[in-house]
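writing this on my phone so excuse typos. first protein, seq and then structure
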Amino acid sequence: MVLLVIVIALVVAAASRHGTPAPTPRGVAHRATLGPPRALSPGLLGVDGEAIIGPGVWTNPRFLSAVAALRPETIRVFGGTPANFWNWRAGTYVRSPRVPSTLSALRAHIRVTLADWARLVRVTGAAPVFDLNMFTSDLRSQLEMLHAARALGLPVSEVELGNELYLPQYAGRFRDGAAYGRAASRWIAAIRRAFPGVLVAADAYPGRDSNSGTVDRRERDWNSQLLRTLRGASALSLHAYFTSGLGPRASLASPAAAEKMLRAPERRWAALERLISRLPRRLPVWVTEWNLFDTVARVHGTWAQGLAVAAFGLDLLSAPRVSQSEYETLVDSAPFGAIFGSTAGLQLASGRGGGPVTFRAVLARAPATPPFGLATGGVAMQGLLGALAGATFARSMSFGSAPVRGMAVAGKTGPGAVIVNLSRKPFLISVLGPLRGLPYTERWARPITLVTGTASLRAHTGTTGSTFDLEPFSLLEIGTAG
């Protein structure tokens, strides 16, 4: 009954706000326009568990506590690129000339067993999404892994077939999308026989918004060829990275540069949405990796990245075709980690999944990072996941012409919202009735600020009224435990 009242209140609050609102006079609050309601299924938002960090991380109680505090709904087991080279029996990378040198160099220093993954899933309450090794392993071994995982208490409910196998380096294994589709169909049939009811996603090409590399013909044709031969899939998995749109000399010390960067998530989402619209409607989409990915501008590790993560996450959560998504990545240094794995988390170096990629640091001598503390993406994810905890439905929020976006939620724990201001300007917004009288936390900082946890940001807390003054470049959480 409480949920019904909240839903009705949010619907009534939005009833007079359809269409494009008129320009808001100075001093008058921007009123919210709500998008269509969306039911929130369990496991909608989680993290990609890259298994590339050095010894002792996965079993460290502080790490387990940090992940549990983040409250991911899913954890992608074996991560992304590492999954293509992972030996689940040994808990490290396979011995093969196919393994990139940067990963094979780590082989002796890493041991993350299936029992370690089971412990992490148990402590966090997250659902595992198994990313299988179709490149350096075989179907029999991967089925044995899934049976071993279930014996350890890991539910086998969602499975993904490989990681970015459309990339050129995997052409020796899969000549094209059609060859992958035929192999994937055999794997799907076998996995479903062994685990009735399991959902299995095939690896689709997501388009590219990257300033590193070019798109070859194999990538461009992958989806059309895949769909001609794929049978039995429950979903298609996509990865969505976006660049800042800034040049090598740009600085986030400039508010104009920051605002330009913070338009990038919307640009990338629009392109991804067009691609999704061309995929079969019967197949939901899993976005199993997403983040800012920029090798040109000095942007990683900054508060601007955190705001971009929040903005893109809101797009994913508002899209009915997206039935699950995993932020890249759980624990690592910047540019991607939600949680820092060491004190050198802002000392950017080469390497994403073993590839020869170099990111540019904001400062030559970056501050030390707290091991297992929140990185900038982790702060944003904490806000999004906090809103989702206990929520059963959501509606996107926009505020006229203001570069302010958000999401209102309702569920067992009552109403809540996450709102992000992507502008250098403060904005006065109207607070929807169900969101008034609730506790809030607002965090903000200069976009160039390097984030080593929430202490890097300015913040204030209180109780919402009928209006709210948003700080520039801010993230507001209402009624959540963030």
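second protein below, same order as before
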Amino acid sequence: MHECDVLIVGGGPAGSSCAWGLRRSGLSVSILDKQDFPRDKVCGGWITPGVLAELEINPAEYAQGRLLQPITSFRIGCVGGSAVETDFGRPVSYGIRRREFDDYLLRRSGAHLVLGAPLASLERAGKGWIANDRLTARVVVGAGGHFCPVARLAGAAVNREDAVVAQEAEFEMDDRQLANCRVGREKPELYFCPDMKGYGWCFRKGNFLNVGLGRADAHGLSAHAAGFLEFLKSAGRISFEIPRLRGHAYLLNGVSRRPSTGDAMLLAGDSAGLAHPQSGEGILPAIQSGLLAAKTILAARGAYGQKALASYREGIAAPAESWAMSAVRRLPPRWIALAARNLLQTRWFVNEIVLKEWFLHAPLELRRHLPHPTV
């Protein structure tokens, strides 16, 4: 029987960040994950500078032997319409490959790793837990993504939630595909659905291309994704077939009703449903929640009841909805398509709302520090 103070179920960014936050605490930490690492992960693979700052990652150091694609510009539009191009002149985000990024975070977390072992059982034992009849812990952190078994134990009704669903593919392009791809290495392309219930993306990272579409409305997802791929071809962005798309799901912060804490239990990242409400970004919220979980555990000083973990629930509360998105939501459905198409052709709206607020997460008081975009 292996004993630890903290058992983290899930070795992705939320789990590894929590372990990293506890690395100097003197607590023994174990991470259990059903997969061996490195492993592929369905994800757009886009991180903001806030991710590097939170985890004290030196970009130059990380880029040694790993893909770190600077993002300096964007192409934003509506599926079926024209696009606005914006150039910030310097990196404002980065593209990564999740198999590299997650493995890097996991290996440097300092935790005892139990990989290739799914969570088969989790039972209360006194004030602690026994996992898989061979791991004991005083507190458990569920960080296994949308379908995390700890979240299910905490009461998540996975099949009855209003999840965002997405389909995407990431693959290395061959010479012919490289010659027929007009998507720039430093310029992700984002195209919103006319009803504003989702968006598609086409994102080149070195010789890799990541293409996908996600929607808050699961009905007809495959048809929407197929239509998006046809749009990319008709717009001349790509002229080759995309490999089979893979699906995944996540909850937006503010939509999720999952309990984030239980008795000697916390949920972090997608397990708690913390994706950014406008962009759907999950990596930064996962890291922030993992670090906050670590701080909460330390502050509890061994007493991990519901009351001791209350500050965690408050810390991961959903941010206020963007005024722009709130205004769009109040429009009658027949007007949304017209409003979306017009707004997404307006440079000020694309730069200040879509990019700086929704995707770069720059608060109003900090936006002046971003480089001024040019056409």
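The CA atoms of residues 58 and 64 lie 10 Å apart. thats all i got for now
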